[in-house]
Design brief:
alpha+beta, eight-stranded mixed sheet, five-stranded mixed sheet, 22% strand, binds adenosine-5'-triphosphate, binds magnesium ion
């Protein structure tokens, strides 16, 4: 009897391993770009032809390799990133197996050019994993890998490749997830000489989101910042009103590593509770940071999944993080509005008069919609009662809005955006205001100086306990800049408005409360309409920043019952 078990020749073993690592051009791009990032690249350029089927080229300006290392890089299990199993725990590089390059080389015509110093350089070629030659090459510091004719020697696999457009899409996606994980690195992607992505290095994730998907999308997202125990969550969540059943962007990074984790996205959606309709899928970008020993990254052949030691905890915290990003009370049921009839006849609503919270495209659209509906629909009755409540018709019946709470919610969202951006437009005062403060208040003024500047207050010491206010915000015509600042600073000094884990949110809530129009102020009809419009355009119109309702509904069927109509 002959022996039936034989150790496979290395070339065959490499091809089998390649099947796990390299499935399509996008997986080659992923591995090569990860290597570039691991090598400390500041700029990564990717070029593909025919969806990557005929050519994939990744160039970086990273550390490069010596000749000996370049030769070794093509050997299986050759890696510079770990030396021993314990190092696998908490490994911070994308790669650690020494599988990718040999796997890719074994199923392609492979070329590598690299230089560790911009002086000496090495070029290397392999066909189907067999090294052809090693030669001198001239190039700047960094590495370029060119992969041609992917799967040329494994026709069965080549047949599985899709049309050029779908392979290209998959490449864009592969690069997108890495670009999200590393906003600080510049990326570009060209496909048959067409530029598909051009991403400058960014200091903030938001800039990267703008680079990928445009400011119109990115700037409507709500920032997530949350920490519980050792788990820190950053990212962005789409406003409930903008979530749709299809086309969502859902990305998860764990310790800087992009992963596919439908369960985490599901958990994040749970954070919306009833704020979205059951079929809606909000866009979510989640970056989780936690200690290396709380997560195992070596559980998937392409490293696309990770395993958490305490998955339940992670999911709970993700849901809580999203809930907080949406506002203090995402838990409440959304109010259903028929916007057009309620706001029809709102007129041009040029948005320059009345309550000014900065430009709001959403409200402009509502006004436009309202104006269009004006010919057909009934004139809305928007009424102010007790100089405090606004009454109008909604889809379900009669809605009553508390004007202070409503304005507070409107200002809060605007201010939060200003605090994390360049700040609000402020008015320079012809004569600086001088205000006197108590010692703890002066300290609060000093600690919050930059945040105050961003909402429009430029304050400088004057003498003793007196400070000079040079600029002030102007959120509405009846705004009392001095009083607002005094109350705001007293709140900040007195620790009122505690309970906000996030400093920016706490500041925004405090400012919104003090700057908002008060109960007991008579408003012009136009101001009333604009306030209601702006309220409906916020992410959580139904609640103010303290979680109190901004809107009370008197359902129509309740009215009909009381009047004996039903
Ligand atoms: N662009 C690059 N710049 C510098 N060194 C590189 C580059 N690409 C690969 N290397 C070197 O070649 C080695 C092998 O790369 P390879 O991708 O095969 O393995 P790895 O990244 O260590 O692990 P994994 O298989 O998990 O990706 C790396 O450890 C690294 O030292
Ligand atoms: Mg690698």
């Amino acid at each position: 009897m002959t022996d039936r078990i034989a150790v496979l020749p290395p070339a065959v073993a490499d091809q089998i391993a390649a099947g796990e690592v390299v499935e399509r051009p996008a997986s080659v791009v992923k591995e090569l770009v990860e290597n570039a990032l691991d090598a400390g690249a500041r700029t990564v350029r990717v070029a593909i032809e025919d969806g990557g089927k005929s050519l994939i080229r990744v160039s970086d300006d990273g550390a490069g390799m010596s000749r000996a290392d370049a030769v070794l890089a093509l050997a299986r299990h050759a890696t510079s990133k770990i030396r021993d199993t314990p190092e696998l725990i908490g490994v911070a590089t994308f790669g650690f197996r020494g599988e990718a390059l040999p796997a890719i080389a074994s199923v392609s015509r492979f070329e590598l050019e690299t230089s560790p110093d911009g002086v000496s350089g090495t070029g290397l070629r392999a066909v189907g994993g067999k090294r052809e030659d090693v030669h001198d090459a001239v190039r700047q510091r960094g590495t370029t890998v060119t992969v041609r004719a992917l799967f040329f020697n494994t026709p069965a696999r080549r047949k599985f490749l899709r049309a050029q457009a779908s392979e290209t899409r998959a490449v864009v996606e592969a690069l997108t997830v890495l670009a999200l994980a590393r906003p600080d690195v510049a990326f570009s992607l060209t496909s048959d000489d067409r530029v598909l992505l051009e991403l400058p290095p960014a200091t903030r994730l938001l800039e990267r989101l703008r680079g990928l998907w445009g400011a119109a999308f990115a700037d409507t997202l709500l920032p997530i910042t949350h920490r519980e125990g050792a788990l820190e969550i950053q990212g962005f969540a789409q406003r409930p009103a903008q979530a749709k059943p299809t086309g969502r962007k859902g990305y998860v990074c764990v310790r800087g590593r992009p992963v596919r984790d439908p369960f985490l996205l599901r958990a994040a959606e749970a954070g919306y509770r009833s704020a979205i309709a059951p079929g809606d899928r909000p866009s979510l970008i989640l970056c989780l940071d936690l200690p290396g020993d709380a997560v195992d990254v070596n559980v998937h052949p392409a490293k696309l999944e990770v395993r958490f030691r305490d998955k339940f905890f992670v999911e709970q915290v993700v849901a809580a993080a999203v809930r907080r990003a949406l506002g203090p009370l995402a838990a409440a049921a959304p109010v259903e509005w028929v916007r057009e009839p309620a706001l029809s006849g709102a007129g041009g609503g040029d948005g320059t008069r009345g309550i000014d919270t900065g430009p709001s495209e959403a409200s402009a659209e509502l006004f436009a919609a309202g104006a269009r509906g004006a010919e057909a629909g009934p004139r809305p009755v928007v009424l102010q009662v007790f100089d405090t409540y606004l009454l109008f018709q909604s889809a379900a019946g009669v809605a009553i809005v508390d004007q202070h709470s409503a304005h507070e919610r409107v200002l809060y969202e605007g201010v939060l955006a200003q605090l994390s951006g360049d700040g609000a437009p402020a008015q320079r005062l012809l004569l600086p205001l001088t205000l006197e403060f108590a010692a703890p208040e002066l300290e609060a003024l000093e600690t919050h100086r930059e945040l105050l500047r961003r909402v429009g207050y430029e304050v400088a010491p004057f003498s003793g306990r007196t400070v000079a206010v040079h600029t002030a915000p102007n959120p509405h015509p009846r705004f009392d800049a001095a009083r607002c600042l005094q109350e705001l600073v007293a709140d900040l000094a007195g620790g009122r408005f505690g309970g906000w884990a996030n400093r920016l949110e706490r500041f925004a809530a405090t400012f919104a409360c003090r700057a908002a129009i008060k109960a007991g102020q008579r408003l012009e009809p136009e101001e009333i309409r604009e306030l209601v419009t702006r309220l409906l355009a916020t992410s959580l119109p139904a609640h103010d920043v303290h979680g109190r309702p901004t809107i009370v509904q008197l359902p129509r069927d309740e009215l009909e019952r009381r009047f004996g109509r039903s």
